[in-house]
Design brief:
The structure holds two protein chains of two kinds. Chain A is mostly helical. In chain A, about 60% of the residues lie in helices and about 5% in strands. Chain A is built from twelve helices and four strands. In chain A, strands 1-2 form a two-stranded antiparallel sheet. In chain A, strands 3-4 form a two-stranded antiparallel ribbon. Helices cover about 80% and strands about 0% of the residues of chain B. Chain B contains 14 helices and no strands. The two termini of chain B are about 45 Å apart. Chain B is mostly helical. Classes of the chains: A mainly alpha, B mainly alpha.
Chain lengths: ~290, ~350
């Protein structure tokens, strides 16, 4: 434990990982957080349960109308087996590398080395689920059904599951045991739309700001302002505009939004000019 | 690209100019990627396919430029996500299902099994040791039988049963044949699930997997003794071999795959532990997918053949033909295909 802590203290705790493409550009992948992955797993299990119930109902309905009881029973047995083992494997081998649950949570599975996601890797990562979740729980369920689950056994099954369930939280890359063996990891796959261009000239009569007003802030503050503008919440804009005016000693003309947009464009242009000559002003301190 | 407009004195920032110069490209790449993710690469026209790598590379280079020159964080995030999506569509997506299947049955599966030969021999030895032990134990004291084999599995086939009753279990048709196929399907799913367990349990340094194989041998040995005692050993083995050759082989392979993982985790050799585990995990998982196929075949042999084929010789013939077939498929040398990715991995 001591050893791990020392390691993590030195390394940054973020979930951002270097990922250099063959073209030499670092894509900076964000790993999926533990919570998102647990959520995705629960969603997948619920969906499987839903499909299983639907399958059962359909087969029972067919069985009541026709008389092919045996074939239907076989279909059910093989179908539930395929569902349990095939759900994760088939979806993750598809084009998006994600089960429906992962897709909803904005996650996808990729090979750690950046190569193709092979069938072997996907099967390995999902077969391990058997011992991570299903084995102790089915064992426990069966013993409880027979009334033989004593305290010790329950404790053992829960400890076993606990070790594997929380395994991702004990390593830096949030790897499950299955990820470890499959050589995969789970990354966030956001698909943001390209937001509006905040620096675009907005109509006529852009404000001109005095040198002193533009000298106040650096890149950090500019990007905070960007967030405020993109969210577009009026109270936040009023607060920010008030703060800037107070600091720069400008008079209040009322139109907060237009003021902020103009200030953003002016500050951005100024900081960019600084970057051209090699001065990148990180924040307001310098 | 940009025209300075005389009416606007507002400063036009670099990010805007940059954006208006490349926005068209980004949007096209975005559209193509969305189509590929929803359907497949085949949904793209020829022009689009040719344009894709170019769009990807130019977008990637705009990402580098944007990181250095643009202060618009929304823009950089958008480009990062766009490039990541494009990267995984171009480099990270698995092959088409058809090609994967062909490679799996053509080279992937037999090679994975060949790679497990050492573990396979160990598992075979474990099973045989269990078998001999089971036989010897029950032979020395019949009460061992009851502790080895659970009641549900024995279903009347125990040392106290008469020779007639035992003969009935081997040669008797199971009623009208109803329920037979269901039973086979049940056995297939059950065995396949147990095989996957055995594989996954290998992660615990292979110990549970070895125990499972030993136990499997024990039950077999105990059963054989019960039948052999009544002079039905030959018939029982025939009854068993029709599907058992395939099934036992599959279970041994599953155990071997599990052992491979366990030993790679315990003794990584010169590699890093994680690297060794990954390499072992991937090849062993390929073998495991094959094991499920074998168990499917075993289930079918069992469902169809076990009660319909009644002659001993026929049963042996079918069982051993299957065994020879599997051995030939796995271990006969075959020529190497050039550029096979699974070999390099």
């Amino acid at each position: 434990m001591r050893l791990w802590r020392r390691k993590t203290a030195r390394a940054p705790l973020s979930l951002r990982r270097r990922f250099v493409t063959p073209e030499g550009v670092d894509l900076r992948l964000d790993l999926g957080s533990g919570g998102a992955r647990a959520g995705a797993f629960l969603l997948d299990m619920l969906m499987q349960l839903g499909v299983l119930i639907a399958l059962t109902i359909v087969l029972v309905l067919i069985g009541m109308s026709g008389g092919m009881g045996e074939i239907l029973l076989i279909l059910w047995l093989v179908g539930s087996f395929a569902l349990r083992n095939g759900w994760f494997i088939l979806f993750e081998m598809g084009g998006r590398g994600a089960t429906p649950g992962k897709r909803l949570m904005g996650l996808r599975v990729v090979a750690r080395d950046g190569g193709r996601l092979t069938g072997g890797a996907v099967i390995a990562r999902n077969a391990m689920r058997e011992i991570e979740v299903f084995l102790p729980l089915t064992f426990l369920g069966a013993q409880t059904a027979q009334g033989a689950a004593d305290g010790f056994l329950t404790l053992f099954a829960l400890t076993w599951s606990g070790i594997f369930l929380f395994f991702p939280l004990f390593n830096r890359d949030r790897l499950r045991v299955g990820d470890l063996l499959g050589g995969t990891w789970v990354v966030q796959s956001g698909r943001a739309k390209l937001g509006a261009d905040l620096g675009a000239p907005r109509g006529i009569g852009g404000r001109v700001f005095p040198e002193r007003a533009l000298n106040l802030y650096g890149v950090l503050e500019l990007q905070a302002l960007e967030d405020v503008l993109r969210q577009g919440r009026e109270d936040a804009m009023r607060t920010v505009a008030g703060a800037i005016r107070a600091k720069a000693g400008l008079t209040d003309e009322g139109d907060d939004e237009a003021f902020l947009f103009d200030y953003y464009a002016a500050l951005c242009a100024r900081l960019e000019r600084g970057m051209l000559v090699g001065r990148r002003r990180r924040d307001k301190h310098g | 690209m940009t025209r300075p407009s005389p009416t606007q004195s507002a400063p036009r920032v670099n990010a805007s100019r940059f954006r208006s110069a490349h926005e068209g490209e980004w949007e096209r790449l975005d559209r193509l990627l969305t189509r590929m993710e929803k359907k497949s690469a085949r949904a793209l026209s020829e022009d689009d396919l040719l344009a894709l790598p170019l769009l990807y590379r130019s977008t990637l280079s705009t990402l580098s430029v944007a990181r250095e020159t643009s202060l618009d964080r929304g823009l950089v995030t958008y480009l990062e996500q766009l490039c990541t999506r494009a990267y995984f569509q171009l480099y990270g997506v698995p092959d088409t299902a058809w090609r994967q299947m062909r490679r799996f049955f053509g080279t992937g599966w037999p090679r994975a099994v060949q790679g497990l030969w050492r573990e396979t021999l160990v598992c075979l030895a474990l099973t045989i040791a269990g078998l001999i032990a089971g036989y010897a134990l029950v032979a020395s004291d019949a009460s061992w039988y009851y502790s080895i084999i659970p009641d549900a599995m024995a279903s009347g086939r125990d040392p106290a049963a008469s020779a007639e009753a035992l003969r009935g279990t081997i040669y008797g048709g199971r009623g009208s044949g109803g329920g037979l196929a269901t039973f086979a399907a049940y056995l297939f799913t059950h065995n396949a699930q147990v095989a996957i367990f055995a594989f996954a349990l290998g992660f615990a340094f292979g110990v549970p997997t070895a125990l499972l194989l030993l136990y499997n041998g024990l039950t077999l040995g105990a059963m054989i003794f019960v039948f052999a005692q009544k002079g039905l050993g030959f018939g029982f083995l025939g009854w068993l071999s029709i599907h058992g050759c395939t099934e036992m082989f599959a279970i041994i392979l599953a155990g071997a795959a599990g052992l491979r993982i366990g030993t790679a985790v315990a003794f990584p050799g010169r590699d890093e532990r994680i690297e060794a585990a990954t390499r072992a995990g991937r090849s062993a998982a390929t073998a495991m997918a094959g094991v499920v196929c074998m168990l499917l075949v075993a289930g079918m042999l069992e469902g169809i053949g076990r009660q319909t084929v009644q002659s001993d010789m026929m049963r042996y013939a079918i069982g051993f033909a299957a065994l020879v077939g599997w051995l030939a498929y796995f271990y006969l040398p075959r020529q190497r295909e050039g550029g096979d990715a699974t070999v390099a991995a």
